[in-house]
Amino acid sequence: MSDVSTQDDAPAGAPGPGSDGTGREPRHFVRMVSIWLILSAIATPLFYFLVGPHVPPGTMTSTAEENQFDFNILMVIALPVLIAVWVYLGYSIITWRSSKAAEPVGGEVARSHLGVQTGWIIITSVIVLFLAGFGTVELISNHGAGGGEGPNPVWTPTSAHILPVQVIGQQWKFTYRYPTFGGMETQQLVLPADTTIAFHVTSLDVIHSFWAYQLSIKADANPQVDNVAFTTTRDTGSFTVRCSELCGLWHGAMYNYGRVVSKTQFAVWAKATEVATAANTKLLPPFAWTYTPDANGADGGYYPDNVDPYSPSEVYGAKQPAS
Ligand SMILES: [Cu+2]
């Protein structure tokens, strides 16, 4: 890889006829590896310990923590590769630029270096196979990617206390119902810290996607589907909820904010909100895991309005009138 400037078939780094005045070609390969080793040994731990704890999506939940760890491991493997490319590029520009007398000579010597070829295949194979194994272990041991466990979760948390929160998407907002607090519905997603949450994600109209970025939760919100995603909250703080499935004209405006608060604060908030929304809750349909979408589009209804003044064709499943 390095000794393309020599005309003989000496191994990489071996001295050869050179043009540096000493009659010996510098050991370019050894130099490059040394520079790469030093830079990698400095940059990799610096990244892991200084930048790593700040890598998105943070540590607000168990799933966020796991994702942050995975991103950091990927970066720790990628950094030395990146540094190798930059070192080779930089070294080549300095050493073999055209204004220098020592023009590298390519040809067969450059193409058929057994050590370089074997090393390349071994190193890239080890990296790719390790990442495949690491990814598989992380996927299984952390019970799925991103907390989206689907309508029939293959695993359920072992935690004794799980707070169910229903996320309802509709054009174009999210609302949240708390079945353990009288089925109240709010526009604020408030969660207690250090608690396992079961998000039950559904939709009243078209397909949406519930993406709570800092919680590292992303789950499709589909009508007639109760899509479950688990996570355990850790730190308190605020987070952003966005729709991440194109769902119509105001998709881009379909976001709001949530908070993870202490358990005591949550208990106070939940009780107060349950009382404050009691009159509203009475007007809502009873809490259910899914609701029948409103056939008349984006008015956010829970039931088909198969009553006047709507025509039968506006009701889901209705036969189209003969034209
Ligand atoms: Cu949407």
SSE diagram, text form:
Elements: H1 28-51, H2 62-96, H3 108-111, H4 114-141, E1 148-150, E2 162-170, E3 173-178, E4 184-186, E5 189-192, E6 196-203, E7 208-212, E8 217-221, E9 227-232, E10 237-243, E11 255-261, H5 263-276, H6 278-283
Parallel strand pairs: 2-6, 5-11
Antiparallel strand pairs: 1-9, 2-3, 3-4, 6-9, 7-8, 7-10, 10-11
Helix pairs in contact: 1-2, 2-4
This protein binds copper (II) ion (CU).
Copper (II) ion binds at residues 169, 208, 243, 245, 247, 251, 254.
Structural account:
By secondary structure, the protein is α+β, with helices and mostly antiparallel strands. It contains 6 helices and 11 strands. The chain has helices at residues 28-51, 62-96, 108-111, 114-141, 263-276, 278-283; strands spanning 148-150, 162-170, 173-178, 184-186, 189-192, 196-203, 208-212, 217-221, 227-232, 237-243, 255-261. The strands form 2 sheets. The protein has a 6-stranded mixed β-sheet with strand order 1-9-6-2-3-4. A 5-stranded mixed β-sheet has the order 5-11-10-7-8, covered by helices on one side. Helix 1 packs antiparallel against helix 2 (62-96) and helix 2 runs antiparallel to helix 4 (114-141). It is elongated and about 90 Å long. The model is unreliable at 1-21, 296-300 and 303-318 (pLDDT under 50). The site of copper (II) ion has 7 residues, from loops.
Summarize the structure.
The chain is of the alpha+beta class. Helices cover 34% and strands 20% of the residues.
Keywords:
alpha+beta, 11 strands, five-stranded mixed sheet, 6 helices, 323 residues, 34% helix, six-stranded mixed sheet
